[in-house]
């Protein structure tokens, strides 16, 4: 089995997807509707954790539960056929020669299933979409064609369970919350309006209405099954509903009201006499409203084929324009797959890290890392608005260098943790600089560093080790000066605080403490003595990177910076104390004491030269310390970096009695940060290939098998080896490994890491997922936790900025390609289309001599056929020259490699 691409816009087609377990597809819009749909139309629909229209599903529910968006057809008054294959008798024939053919066609936010019953002489198409125009509704167009040579009497009945409450109630007061339901029928549908939302901490009046409506240009339902129990009947179920076997349908009429039961969107349409090759069409709308009137307004305008088709085309066009990056290489399958990788960051902005069947561990929203890593993709696709997004995100930084961990639904909305739970991830300070640096290079906007923003404030203080007993909710969630006014500091100051505090926050081996966890949340059992060497290297890189930005600011005439006087505790210390762990922790404690509740608000000036010197000194010390203490070797002569210390204070990686212990994360960041020497780059690749690489499951595993449930490091070691964080091919870190190798000019090795993932994911027989990249690949090679992964942003950024080498340099457009000769097409060309400086560009590389990246250089640049002469012999185009191009036109930049 496999899927086949349709055209160049990400659409694909697949036969018999219902023979593969666990497949699901996202349907959503930016108004908050979040649905998932499987080949048999199971899955759910919701707007948030407390507003599920359809019953919540996890991955196991897809094949265990009988609930689905089922549509029944009564044929000639007696035979019954499920258009989704969800009848007991169709299920029984699923693996026999009598199986009904099923075809899936899908693209960005649209999904169509076609099913044929030769026995009944019928062909059904169910097209599903969530309008991009913003209505809070999921739509289905149902078409039944008579493919026989005889007239048939057909009657359609929908059977869509309406859950209409919080996911928490699936096992917490499920029946009791059904008692809150008030169910009504209208001229064209069924509505459920719960009286209240159930929460024993404090029940609230409900303000959400749910409904299922249906019809077409000329027909409305003739009656309804609004109550689930009445439809399935005594002894029945949703796959053998008793109501459909009774001689009389016994439906309810419009304006019927009841309450206290599980509801059903059971719409019964009039019987139609259908000629051979004739098709009947209905539209079903499953929606939400803030009131009954709002619900009907959202849904009822779509109840015609014309309205649905208009919505279908608008939605397809909307998402096509949103996914405005494409690549053309010699591998057309890769080009198509990259469309889906480019689309995935948009899905994560909508769904967060929750609300798809595998992602059942959260209740919505995104995490701190997500805010910054999703911006990476936005900078490639839609840079407008990113500046304000970054500024708003910085409002989540605390003055002690940590950050808010409860993130609201609105941009820049951070919420105090009133449950008094300490949460500190030691990697959180790394990501804001990486994203801000990319933003500055893509836009040339160094001025963002001088913009001011407030700091987040709640009860948590001293990097999670103390509580601010003086803080109360009435004070709000912004740090204040002694004068009680809100304090604001520059973005530069925010970055300095995050990275300087991390420099001092060290354990007994002089690396940053793990505390709650790092990017790998499953390293969560080493809060006392655990340390992360890997992320210490990135803090060094950030400190040096900030210093480099200060050089550029100096070129613009800015060489003095006002910083809060408290920060100077962290600056200007003698290099001699850097080896003194006790002194460093004392300095950090002193700083945290000064800002535990309020700060003075006084600012002191420092020269850019002095600040640079301090930052570079700290970075250099970290590099040297790690190079001298953390390189490990095996008896076979392989070498790699130890990246962690456990809660017993022991080095985690190296060769032990139980075998080789190596973690991919521990190699990625020394490579990316330039901590690893050029010679060590080659050694790391050899070691990773020997101990971590498994082509049959997609590439580089996250770690070797430790053969231990390591309770002094993290819960990941309790997972079966080869699954999730314990030894799976974890896409995020595998992609970052590729990125790091490209940064070290290891082009072929970087390409190998990325293409291994693509080859595996694109092989449906192995990965068993639709196009795109999953969170990880399990021990059997199946892609798991599809769509919502930061790996997509990193993959996209790596392909564009490293593989194609198309990237900003302080706002100018630079070309530093690392494309291998095998990646060019038959015409010896490769190209990428994207937006830069507000202009639509297609950058086409020509490699007529078929050279490799360690040989070729940029020899010629043309813009729309006109030769371009770079300034100072640097192979880049000045930003002002790009801005001078027409906004409406697609411009072709041709870059010749020789």
UniProtKB/TrEMBL annotation:
Domain Glycosyl hydrolase 94 supersandwich as annotated: residue spans = 54-296
Could you tell me the superkingdom of the organism this chain comes from?
Bacteria
Single GO BP term: carbohydrate metabolic process
SUPFAM superfamilies the UniProt entry points to = Galactose mutarotase-like, Six-hairpin glycosidases
Q: Which InterPro entries match?
A: 6-hairpin_glycosidase_sf (IPR008928), 6hp_glycosidase-like_sf (IPR012341), Gal_mutarotase_sf_dom (IPR011013), GH65_N (IPR037018), GH94_catalytic (IPR033432), GH94_Enzymes (IPR052047), Glyco_hydrolase_94_b-supersand (IPR010383)
Q: Give GO terms: molecular function aspect only.
A: carbohydrate binding; glycosyltransferase activity
Q: Keywords of this protein's UniProt record, alphabetized?
A: Glycosyltransferase, Transferase
Identify the CDD domains for this entry.
GH94N_LBP_like
Domain named Glycosyl hydrolase 94 catalytic: which ranges? 318-458, 617-804
PANTHER family, per the entry: CELLOBIONIC ACID PHOSPHORYLASE, CELLOBIONIC ACID PHOSPHORYLASE-RELATED
Name of the protein described by the UniProt record: Cellobiose phosphorylase
Which species is this UniProt entry from? Lacrimispora algidixylanolytica
């Amino acid at each position: 089995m496999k899927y086949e691409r349709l055209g160049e816009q990400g659409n694909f087609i697949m036969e018999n997807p219902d023979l593969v377990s666990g497949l699901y597809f996202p349907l959503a819009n930016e108004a908050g509707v979040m649905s998932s749909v499987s080949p048999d139309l199971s899955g759910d629909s919701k707007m948030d954790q407390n507003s599920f229209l359809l019953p919540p599903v996890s991955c196991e529910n897809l094949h265990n539960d009988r609930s689905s968006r089922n549509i029944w057809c009564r044929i000639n008054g007696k035979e019954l056929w499920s258009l989704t294959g969800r009848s007991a008798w169709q299920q029984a024939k699923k693996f026999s020669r009598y199986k009904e053919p099923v075809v899936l066609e899908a693209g960005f936010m649209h999904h169509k299933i076609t099913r044929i019953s030769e026995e009944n002489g019928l062909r059904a198409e169910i097209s599903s979409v969530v309008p991009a125009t913003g209505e809070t509704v999921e739509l289905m167009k149902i078409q039944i064609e008579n493919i026989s040579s005889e007239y048939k009497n057909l009657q359609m009945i929908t059977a869509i369970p309406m859950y209409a409450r919080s996911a928490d109630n699936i096992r917490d007061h499920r029946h009791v919350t059904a008692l809150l339901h008030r169910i009504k029928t209208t001229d064209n549908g069924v509505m459920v309006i719960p009286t209240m939302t159930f929460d024993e901490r404090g029940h609230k009046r409900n303000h959400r209405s749910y409904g299922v409506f249906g019809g077409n240009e000329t027909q409305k339902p003739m009656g309804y099954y609004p109550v689930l129990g009445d439809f399935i009947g005594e002894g029945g179920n949703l796959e053998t509903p008793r109501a459909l076997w009774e001689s009389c349908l016994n439906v309810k009429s419009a304006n019927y009201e009841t309450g206290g039961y599980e509801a059903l969107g059971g719409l019964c349409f009039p019987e139609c006499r259908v000629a051979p090759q004739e098709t009947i069409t209905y539209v079903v709308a499953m929606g939400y409203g803030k009131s009954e009137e709002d619900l009907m307004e959202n849904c009822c305008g779509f109840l015609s084929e014309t309205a649905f088709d208009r919505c279908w085309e608008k939605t397809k066009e909307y998402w096509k324009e949103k996914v405005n990056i494409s690549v053309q290489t010699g591998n057309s399958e890769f080009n198509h797959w990259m469309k889906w990788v480019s689309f995935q960051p948009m899905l994560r902005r909508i769904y967060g890290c929750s609300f798809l069947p595998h992602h059942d561990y959260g209740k919505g929203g995104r995490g701190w890392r997500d805010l910054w890593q999703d911006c990476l993709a936005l900078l490639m696709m839609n840079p407008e608005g990113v500046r304000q997004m970054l500024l708003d995100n910085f409002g989540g930084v605390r003055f002690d260098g940590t950050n808010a961990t409860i993130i609201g639904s609105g941009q820049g909305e951070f919420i105090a943790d009133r449950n008094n739970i300490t949460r500190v991830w030691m990697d959180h300070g790394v990501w804001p600089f990486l994203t801000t640096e990319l933003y500055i290079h893509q836009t040339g906007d160094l001025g963002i560093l001088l913009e001011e923003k407030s700091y987040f404030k709640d009860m948590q203080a001293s990097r999670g080790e103390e509580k601010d007993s003086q803080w109360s909710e009435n004070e709000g969630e912004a740090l204040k000066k002694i004068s009680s006014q809100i304090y604001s500091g520059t973005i530069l100051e925010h970055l300095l605080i995050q990275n300087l505090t991390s420099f001092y926050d060290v354990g007994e081996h002089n690396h940053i403490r793990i505390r709650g966890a790092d990017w790998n949340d499953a390293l969560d059992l080493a809060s006392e003595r655990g340390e992360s060497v890997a992320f210490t290297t990135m803090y060094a890189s950030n400190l040096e990177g900030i210093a480099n930005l200060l050089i550029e600011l100096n070129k613009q005439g800015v060489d003095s910076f006002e910083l809060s006087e408290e920060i100077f505790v962290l600056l200007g210390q003698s290099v001699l104390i850097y080896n003194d762990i006790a002194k460093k922790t004392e300095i950090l404690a002193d700083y945290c004491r000064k800002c535990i509740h309020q700060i003075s608000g006084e600012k002191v000036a420092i020269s850019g030269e002095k600040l640079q010197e301090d930052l570079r000194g700290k970075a250099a010390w970290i590099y040297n310390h790690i190079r001298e203490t953390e390189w490990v070797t095996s008896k076979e002569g392989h070498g790699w970096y130890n990246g962690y210390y456990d809660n017993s204070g022991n080095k985690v990686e190296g060769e032990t009695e139980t075998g080789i212990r190596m973690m991919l994360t521990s190699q990625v960041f020394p490579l990316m940060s330039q901590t690893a020497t050029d010679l060590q780059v080659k050694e790391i690749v050899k070691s990773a290939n020997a101990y971590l690489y498994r082509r049959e499951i997609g590439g580089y595993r996250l770690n070797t098998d430790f053969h231990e449930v390591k309770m002094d490091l993290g819960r990941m070691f309790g997972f079966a080896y080869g699954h999730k964080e314990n030894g799976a091919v974890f896409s995020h870190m595998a992609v970052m490994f590729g990125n790091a190798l490209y940064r070290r000019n290891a082009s072929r090795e970087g390409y190998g890491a990325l293409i291994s993932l693509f080859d595996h994911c694109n092989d449906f027989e192995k990965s068993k997922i639709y196009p795109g990249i999953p969170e990880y690949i399990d021990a059997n090679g199946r892609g798991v936790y599809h769509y919502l992964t930061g790996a997509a942003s990193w993959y996209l950024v790596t392909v564009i900025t490293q593989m194609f080498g198309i990237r900003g340099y302080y706002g100018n457009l630079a070309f530093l390609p690392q494309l291998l000769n095998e990646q060019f097409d038959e015409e010896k060309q490769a190209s990428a289309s994207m937006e830069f400086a507000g202009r639509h560009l297609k950058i086409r590389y020509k490699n007529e001599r078929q050279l490799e990246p360690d040989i070729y250089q940029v020899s010629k640049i043309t813009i729309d056929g006109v030769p371009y002469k770079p300034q100072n012999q640097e192979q880049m185009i000045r930003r002002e020259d790009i801005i001078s191009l027409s906004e409406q036109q697609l411009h072709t930049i041709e870059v010749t490699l020789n």
